[in-house]
Amino acid sequence: MFRIVAALLILADLALRARNFTYFYTDQGVVPRSLAMDALPVDASVYFLTGSQTGTAALFAIHALFAVQLLVGYRTRIATALSLVFVLSLDLRNPLVLSYADTLFVWLLFWAIFLPLGERWSVDAVHADRAPRASVATPATALILAQLVTMYVVNGYHKTESELWTSGEAAALVLGLDDMTFLLADLVQQVPTLLQYGGLAWYYMLLFAWVLLLVRGHLRTVLVAPFVLAHLSFAVTVRIGAFAFVALAGLLLFFQTPFWDDLRALLVRAGVPISRMNERASRLETVAAAFPRWRPLEGVVVRLSRNPRRTAVAAGAVLFGAFALLAVLSAGGLLADDVDPAETAQRGAVGFVDHQTEWSIFAPNPRTTDRYHVFAAQTEGGERIDVYNDRPLTVDKPDAELQTQYGTYRERFYMNSVRAGEPADTQALFADHICAEWNEDEAVDGELIYITMYVVEADVTWETIDSPSERTWEPSELYRHGCGDREPTVVEL
Fold first, then answer.
1. Alpha carbon of 77 to those of 29, 54, 66, 119, 125: distances in Å?
2. What is the pTM assigned to this prediction?
3. How far, in Å, CA of 465 to CA of 176, rounded?
4. 21 exposed, middle or buried (CB, 10 Å; 0-12, 13-18, 19+)?
5. Collapsed DSSP state (helix, strand, coil) of residue 482
6. Cis? peptide before 423, omega within 30° of 0
């Protein structure tokens, strides 16, 4: 189930990123490869091979094919490793739009390489010469469970540094942010006290998530259920991308045999035609059997299985090598010919520790400042407009719901990078792109000549959680730009 959900997440992510295909992933957009390399000093990545639309589209297609291979479970371990390479490469192609969901998903995929994800419901299972195992317990199963628990516990630890979290108020204030909440958020904003108790419960759930590793069977199911409910609530209230769904995929791994037995019994009692589904599965097995059987390592696996010591040494070597490689890549460095192996291993270890101690999601201090953007621009004919929101120039809110100012959730992450001005050329490249797009349209009132980027912010207080209109909004200048060779000139609001 984890394998299937992970593959579907990759396909869904590709489909969602395709909405900003040219804008974010080609050299014709706001993040050319040079800017991406400045953000993370990595120059070897699959998605850095080309910056053209055609070439990048081809890479998207190959990326999707590996995800489909993972979905059906054909040469599953290879499919998992190749999917990881493409997922990580796509993340590196535009680090300005990433979130903790992307980081968590990369680590889950990495540990999943060492799991028998093709054991059931797969082409590999049909090709296997033995019955699927009832359960699996290996260092890899421990590590992937520990990955999710580490994310929870470290995040909880960061939250201990903020009184807003220890009092429970943080959850209510975060859900008052109009620029990142949607769907049912308006409803839950009406009960801030309930949100406060929910935030306090979430805080303690994070701190004591390590208990999930110690319990088994039905008790583990009972303790995992609140985490599932919490992430489902995030998915329908806070527009934070795929984080809720990635975490839910990871939580699937915590459900043991009793849960699946109970689920099957529940489906039978509900009248779900299990026998008919089994018949359809048999027909699928016929299709799976037609796939070519390619087992280049079969002899090696047999020899290793007969020698436990050799197996342990080989497994340790593979784990260390893969761990070091991914840790170095994720830390932003690459293996060079003149790099000392000891230094490389040290950098890899540092990268791993940095990533596992950086789970500061909404922590230690959560953002409690609502915001929207106004890009004041002037044309040659003297017309003044808000070019970001495509309207006459005004400092008023662009929409009743501020989250709609972003076409996709990754646009909000990108605007966080623009606001921070990191890397250094981010704002200039964005402004140049706006100028070029406007001037290509041959506007009636002439070319765009000046742009001044503003962010308009307001503090969310306990009294204004459900009433953004009552907040005090203040604009501040981010960046001024002159289109073409013009000197930057401020365009006043």
1. 35, 29, 11, 11, 13
2. 0.90
3. 5
4. middle
5. strand
6. yes
Residues 6+ apart with CB under 8 A from 19: 407, 408
pLDDT digits (tens, 9 = 90+) for 278-318: 888 888 888 888 899 876 655 555 455 556 665 566 666 56
Domain boundaries, the chain: 1-136, 138-253, 298-356, 369-482
Q: How many CA atoms lie within 13 Å of 351's alpha carbon, on the beta-carbon side? A: 20
Give the least confident one: 57-61, 334-338, 411-415: 334-338
DSSP 9-63: HHHHHHHHHGGGHHHHHSTTSSS-HHHHHHHS-----GGGS--SHHHHHHHHHHH
* pLDDT score of 335: 40
Torsion, Cα of 211, 214, 218, 223 (10° steps): 10
Amino acid (one-letter) located at 451 = I
If you average pLDDT over residues 131-149, what whole number do you get? Answer: 92
Give the residues across from 376 on adjacent strands. Answer: 386, 452
Tokens of 437: 């797009």
Within 8 A by CB and 6+ apart from 77, the residues are 113, 117, 118
Closest CA to 414 of 13, 105, 35, 87: 35
In this structure, how many other beta carbons lie within 10 angstroms of the beta carbon of residue 169? 21
Q: Which token pair is 488?
A: 């930057």
Cis peptide before 475 (omega within 30 of 0): no
Compute the distance between CA of residue 174 and CA of residue 198 in angstroms, rounded to an integer.
12
Report how far residue 206's alpha carbon sits from residue 200's, in angstroms, rounded to the nearest whole number: 10
CA distance 330 to 322: 12
| Lookup: tokens for 412 | 């909000």
Partnered with residue 386 across adjacent β-strands are 376, 391
Angle 308-330/76-93 helices, nearest 10 degrees? Answer: 20
What is the DSSP secondary-structure string of 157-211?
HHHTT-HHHHTTHHHHHHTT-TTTB-TTHHHHTT-HHHHHHHHHHHHHHHHTGGG
Q: Which residue has the tokens 């009552």?
A: 470
Closest among 107, 98, 11 to 61, alpha carbons compared: 11
In contact, 106 and 88? CB cutoff 8 Å: yes
Of the pLDDT bands very low, low, confident and very high (cuts 50, 70, 90), residue 439 is confident
- Structure-token pair, residue 309: 């010591």
Q: What is the residue type of 329?
A: L
Which residues, 6+ apart, have CB-to-CB distance to 412 below 8 Å? Answer: 179, 180, 239, 403, 406
Q: Which pLDDT tens digit goes with each residue over 150-165?
A: 999 999 999 999 999 9
**What residue has token string 């201090």?**
365
**Residue type at 462 in one-letter notation:** W
